[in-house]
Structures are given as structure tokens and as C-alpha cells.
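Q: Joint fold for the lines below.
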Amino acid sequence: MSAVVERITPPVAAPVQRKAARRKSHFTPARLGLYALLVSSAAFFLLPLYVMLVTSLKPMEEIRLGQLFALPLNATFEPWVQAWSLACTGLECRGIQVGFWNSVWIVVPSTIASIFFGALNGYALSFWRVRGAGWLFGVLMFGAFVPYQVMIYPLVRTLATVNLFGTLGGIVLIHTVFGMPVMTLLFRNYYAGVPIELFKAARIDGGGFWRIFFQLMLPMSLPIIAVAVIMQVTNIWNDFLLGLVFAGRDNLPMTVQLNNVINTTTGERLYNVNMAATMLTSALPLAVYLISGRWFLRGITAGAVKG
Amino acid sequence: MASSQPARKKRAAAAQLALLPMAITVLGVYIGTVLWSVRISFSSSKIFPKNDFVGFSQYERLFATERWTVSLHNIAIFGVLFILACMVLGFFLAVFLDQHVRGENVLRTIFLYPYAMSFVATGLVWQWMLNPGLGIQAAVRNLGFPEFQFDWIVNQDKVIYTLVVAAVWQASGLVMAVLLAGLRGIDESLWNAARIDGVPRWRYYLSVVLPQLGPAFGTSFVLLAVGVVKVYDVVVAMTLGGPGNASEVPAKFIMDNLFTRANVGLASAASTVMLLTVLALLVPWWYARSVQSRKLGHS
Amino acid sequence: MSNVTIENLDIQFSGISVISQLNLDVHSGEFLVLLGPSGCGKSTLLHSIAGLIDVHDGRVDIGGNDVTWADPKDRGIGMVFQSYALYPTMTVEKNLSFGPRIAGVAKAEIARRVERAATMLQLTELLHRKPAQLSGGQRQRVAIGRALVREAGVFLFDEPLSNLDAKLRGELRRELKQLHHRLGATMIYVTHDQVEAMTLASRIAVMKDGKIQQIDTPASVYARPVNMFVAGFLGAPSMNFVEGKLECSERGTHFVSPTLSIDVSSYPFFTSPQPGQPAVLGVRPEHIALSPHGTELAGSAIVSLVEPMGSNQVVWLDAQGVSLAVDADAQFTPALDNRIGFTIAPAHVSLFDLQTQQRL
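A: Joint structure:
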């Protein structure tokens, strides 16, 4: 038997018409319809952002014309300056920058503290056997779903008793406590994916609880810490209710100030200033979102997949 | 091996110490405050907590208060519409993005960015857009449709729908993200097998993909439902519960009674009712998940 | 059962030609294995036969019909994927009947076909189970059942055993061979595992870089490989290659190398050998015999390693830097680092041109 490598073929009478018809275009009606739907959905989502931006750049005369979607004819940054340094939040009229710095002062320590405790809890739950820890964790997960309103009044009274109510320390403590469920879950799930042999090797090398945590686990957790930072910065910056109740008049976060600026002014409402203030308040979380990209997505799905 | 009894006890102590904050949080905050609130709801507290016991009278008062029953009515309508719209929109967005379109990353960024904004900002922007005199109604009228009406936000019967629109705008990206993650977990060769079976694409999504997305839908539903119960920020920012009480919601009712109107007992009764509602939603879901994972053989 | 004819097939991915001018004839009822390393184009070829990948040029015929541009569902094929691709939320019965239900086949007819397939594949008790509750072998049978229910003329297999452990792989391989015998179906099977190819195929098509190197029965491909690639791909341990030259004299043609020399006068050359022609000798481990006290040796070498396999042993010889594997009897274990002689049966050798690597 011979080894067949080539085969002499008779000329192929391939029908030319069929070839031309099948040059499958990627632009079928279905495909075009798909893109149309996607583009119109994108327009729906982008519309408020566009309106916000455009309104904040118009002088009030243009706004009174009632052309919501029109581009500004005499674009001006005046509303932004006003929003930042002159707008009235309650009694003060120093602009929303006050709220900005308050929010920064709240977000930074709260993020650090909630992530630290989340990592510590996740580490202890994953690698160490402590009696009752599993049960505590279960209730903690449950607690993530409890509406804040049930817990607010007792917390107010507790903090008042220790003189932490209406202080920066108080609001940071509150955020740490309310961030614990999601952060613990995040880190516990992450550490569940770390091979236990690594931990055992560290134990054999003589590591104790704290040493292993600080010198092995935390350095290894940089990816999930990045995700946690993104989640916490976004959630704490955007928080309204807790800041309203616990921060105290001197530390009101930007979201609360924003609401004050817009909904509690007397006289004519300066819509351009309002929109500028809204954009300023949203600037930081949107920047975090745009920069973090996939990490933001990871944060959502990691937090969403419970257990 | 230096693993003697004292050393082992020391290690156990370190772990216990480390978990102490969590224990305090769970017992003190999550359990303690709930119990305390429930206790208050059985008292006649107004501004300050009183230690008496008045049975269910606060609850009776509660359900006789019109603002409360209106808020329940509103939250029900809001909840159903919001969850339905988010799930449907989120599903279609996820499916569309799964079709290997150009600019997939850009589109996904656009669909999800509202979720990065605070609820307050969302409420304020939509309040502005829905302003009858200067917002969308005015703009469309100026375009040459003088009869165009879009003043829902000042209309007692329609204001709740404006809240739905704003909330759906904010949250459908979340559902899309969760469902997209679920879609990506589906075996790719299933589509090839379906092609050979002659299954058209829409039927493939209906009969093969959708059933597999059960867990993802479940997760989305729970996230959305919990958000519904908690909805507060967007109402305060967008309508302040108005016009009148037309867009009142339970969370706002409770906050107003706790602080502004100093009706602590009544507010605690209302929060207990909220808590029970959340439990009623969660327990069946928890049960269903544990049954399913036991069936699949996990622990 | 259908035959498959492929003529002058051209497949391109983003402008790069993956398969060009490929011709292939698959006979009705045969088990053809497409064998080759990763990236050789075997999966691409299979997917283009199935219609899952568009071709750039050429023609694909199944059962006498030109299906080059037809949809997968209109080609009369069934396909078994590496993951079996069973619809996870449907029962076995629904998995089997899904295709015909979509096509609008009458319910009675669907039931008849499902029952027939289930009987043939012993799936009748499993009809109401879901894929997650089936074993690997059962899932394979359901995947095949899907093709049966669609009354496919050709069954396509895309490395269905690659994900399994060795023991299960062997069991399912044997099941598949029996199934082929029972059904008499045309089967085209893609794999990189030469053991699967040898045991299952009625013909093997060895592929490399998008081209079929050789297509023939397993025995022929094994015994008379057409180039060094095919020779080295089949058989384990693989064929030994020794470089040297051909010397022609009155005594006949000899292959000569620093390490060994044998008389190849009776070798069936395609073209007459040139004197001094550089060549490579290929000889399989089982065709070298250790000859400690023998005469007429082909050569001698140092024993560098012995690998006992139980029923036999592989003895590795070091012949001046050239490594030779010898398949030897388990009885006699040569001492390590000792020199030992060996003989080679000239009837079983292959000779290749050093430059072109083609068979001489």
C-alpha cells in the first residue's frame, strides 16, 4: 500500500454565484438592530451626565430658556466656582469644598480600618479554628441585609454615651462596623483560594498568628485589597444616611452638603450651581470607577456572590 | 516540635483576640441594636426611651397612620416595577454585550457608571431633568410640541414612577454586571452543539442559557430587593417624599419619626416591621441555596 | 452513512492561512482519525467540516451533497465535543430530542428515534437524569445519542477523551470502538494521542502545519511512515533515528554510520540510492535486538539506562552520543555501563533523506 500524500484532483466546477452570495457580511439586519439597541441604551445612560455637564456650564439666563439639551452658548465656569467656594450649606456659605474635605477625612480612615478588620477576620476565619467563629460569621452575613433604620437609634444613644456621637471618630467607627460584613466576606473568599499548604509551611517555619498575617497573608492580598479599596472608597464617599446621622455638623460629608445646597435654599434656585455641585460630588467616585475598570467589576461580583 | 499545650493555647488566644472586634460587632451592633429597637417598639417612648411596656399599641398606631400605609403602598409599587425593570433591562444588556460587539468595553463602562454615583446625586440630576418648567417637558415643548406633558414629578399619582426611572437608571448596570459574569461562566461549546442541533440564537438563550442563569438571577433579585427596602437617599434628594406624602417610603418615615418628629417608639415599631419583611425575603432564598448546594454535593 | 469529500480546502484566520489546498476522502463507514500536535489544524478542519468555521475556498461534500456553505444543521452531522456539551438543565431525554423538536419533527417520530438511540446506547434507564448525575461514559453516550437522533450521516469527535484520567480514557476508548462496530457509522475523530489513533482508526491522517502528511491504515502508517515527522509521532518510545550515509558497492547497498552499519539491499527504495547519499536510518525499539554474544552485529553500544515496564523493559543505549531505545525481553537485564552488541532486522527499517526528511 502506498502512502498517500497528494491527491490529483479533477478541476472543481465550483458555482461562482454561490460563493458570491455567501460572502457572509457581518452587517445582517439582526446585527444592525443589535447595534441600534446598544447605542440607544447608551444614550439613555449618558443623557443625565450630559445634562448635568451642560447645565453646569450655562449662565442662568440660558437655563431659563428651558432648552435642557442645548449646548451652552456662553459657556462659563462661574457656577463651578460658586458651587465650590460660595454655595450655602445651611448656615455657612463657604461652598461645597467644606463637604469635600470632610468626606476625605471620613473616607480615608474608614477605608483603612474596615479593610484591616475585614482582612483580619477573613484570615482568622479561613486558617484558624476558633469556637463559634463560623456561627458569628453567619450572623454577620445576615447583618449585611438588616436595614440601617433598625439599628440607628440604639447606635445614636450608645455613641452619645461615650461622647462619640457627632464626631469624626464616631462616623469612622460606624463605617468600619457597617463595612465589616462585606469586607470580611471578600477576604474570606479570597483566602479560601489560597492553598493551605502555604499556611502550613509558614507554621512549620515558626510563624505565629500575627506574624503570618502581617508578613505573609497581607502582602499576598494586594489584588483583593485593591478591589476592597475601590469598593469602600466608592461606598463610603457615596453614603448619605450614616453621614447625616452620625457625622455631626462639623463633619458633614459632601453628599449631605450637596443635598443641603440644592434642596434647602430659599430664593431662586441656581440650577447651574446645583449641577456643578452635583458633578463635583460625583467626580471622585466616577474617577475611581473609570480608572479602576475591571477591578470595580470584580468588586461587584465578588461582593454579590454570597457564600 | 515546640507545639506544646501552652503554645497552642497562646495561638488560639491570638486568633480569639483578633476576632474580638467581629464578635463585638455581631453581638453588640447587629444583634444588640435589633433587640433594643424591638424592645423600644413595645414601649411608649417619644423623645427619650421609656422603660414601660405597652404591648402592640405602637404597632396599632403605626398601621393607623396614613403616612405609613401610603409608604407601604409606595414601596410595593416601587419594588415590583424597579426589580422587574432592572432584571429585564440588565438581562438584555448582558445578552447584547455577550454578542462579541465592537466597543464592548466602552459600552460596559457606560452602562455601569451610574452605579458609581451616589443615590443623592442621581436623585438630584433626575429631579432637575424632570423639572416641568425647565426640564424635559419644557425642552420638548420648545421643540414644537406645545401639548407635551411630562410633569410626573409634581403629580401625586405618577411621582412614584419617576423614582422608579431614576433607580432603574442607577441599578440596571449592576444586574447587567452580575448576569454578564454568569453568562461568561457558561460552557462555550454549548453554542456550537446548539448550532449543530439547528437551534436559533434566541431559542438558545431562552432554553439553554436562561435556565443556567438561575443563581445569577437569584443573587440579583436579593441585591435589588434589599436595596428596595432600604431606599432613602434617592427619595430625599429627588422628591422629599412629595408632593405631599405621595412618594413617602418606609425608610424615610422611620427617619422622620426618629429625629424630626421624636416618635421613637413608633419609629422602632416601623423598623421592626421593615426587618421582618427583609427576613421574610431572605430566609426562603437562603433555604433554596442551601438545598441546591446540598444537591450538588457541596458542604 | 455518508462519505465526506474535501477538495482544495483553504481556511484563513485574520489573513493567515491555517489550511491550504487540503484534499481528503473519508469513506462511508470508516473511522478516520485526524492525528497531530497542537496547532496542526486538525480541530480547525473538523470544525469546518461541521460548518462551525467558514472556509475561504474549496469544497466540502457530505453524502454527495455540496455543503460548503450550508449551516451546521443542514449537513447531516453530529458532533461530540471535548466537554460533551450536554445541555445541563435538561434531562437526557430532552437533550436527545432538542434538535428534532426545533426542526419541527412530529412527536411520535421523535419518540421513536429517541427510543432507538437509547436502546442502542443503553441509555434507557437514564432518560430522566440530568447530565450532572451521569458518569463520563454515560455522558459520552448521550453526546453520541444526540447525533443518532438527528439521523446523522457523519459523526465528528473533537478530542472527547482529553479531559479524562488514563483509566477512564481506556474504558471509553474501547466503548467507542465497539460502538463504531455496532453502528457502522462514518466517524471522524480528532486527537493528539497516538495510542487513541492506533487503537481506534481504520485510517489515520497525520497532520502538521495544516497539511496532511500521510493518510493510511494504522499498520501502514506505523510500519512505513512517509517522513520523519510521521515516523517520530507514532509509537512509544518513538522511533530511533541515526544519521549516516548510503554506500553502494558490489556487495550491495549499506547504511553506514559511526555507530552502526546494516545491509539495506533489500530495502524498497522509491528512487535508486546515490553513493555517499546522506540518509537517516529509522528503526523502532522493538526491531532492535540485544545480542550479547552474537555475530553479525549491526553495532555495539553502552547500556546507559534500563526502564522495567513489567512485561518488557526499555533499554537505553548510548552509541557515541546517539541515544537508542531498545524494547527488550524482561528476562535478561544487561548490566549498566557495559558495552553490548545489537542486531537490526533490515526488513523493518525506514530510510529518510537527511535534507528533506522524506522517505527514500
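Q: Anything notable?
A: DSSP finds eight helices and 20 strands in chain C. Chain C has two domains: 4-233, 240-353.
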